[in-house]
UniProtKB/TrEMBL annotation:
Gene3D superfamilies: E3 ubiquitin-protein ligase SopA
Name used for this protein in its record: Uncharacterized protein
Organism per entry: Lottia gigantea
Amino acid sequence: ISSVNIELCFISRVNIELCFISSVNIELCFISRVNIELCFISSVNIELCFISRVNIELCFISSVNIELCFISRVNIELCFISSVNIELCFISRVNIELCFISSVNIELCFISRVNIELCFISSVNIELCFISSVNIELCFISRVNIELCFVSRVNIELCFISRVNIELCFISRVNIELCFISRVNIELCFISRVNIELCFISRVNIELCFISRVNI
């Protein structure tokens, strides 16, 4: 029915849990951790991980993840109704998510980040990325993306109905986008930007670019 885990793990830990109603995990893990969880109603994870962490979660109704990860993290999540992720990642992070109804991601990433997301109804992404970010997203109905990227960013997106993109990019940005119905793009780019876009119905683009820009 319910499970509460408070753990201090200093070297290595493997956690396999089946929780059918509610699960609360508070963990401090200092070297390596593998977490495999199946949670069918609600799951709350509060974790501090200092070196490496692999998280594989299947959550079928709601999942809240609050995580501090300082070196490397791999997160694979299957969330079928709603997912809220609040994450602080300081060196490298790979995030692979399958979210079928709604997903809210609030992330602070300081060196490198790879984000691969499949979102089928709505997704809200708020991201602060300070060095490099690679974002590959498939969004089928509506998506709101708010991003602050300070050095370099590569964005490959397939959006099929509507998309709102608000971006602040300070050095270089490469944007490859396929948008099939409507798109609103508001961008501030300060040094260089390459934009390759295929838009088939309507598009509104408001951009401020201060040094060089190539637009195809």
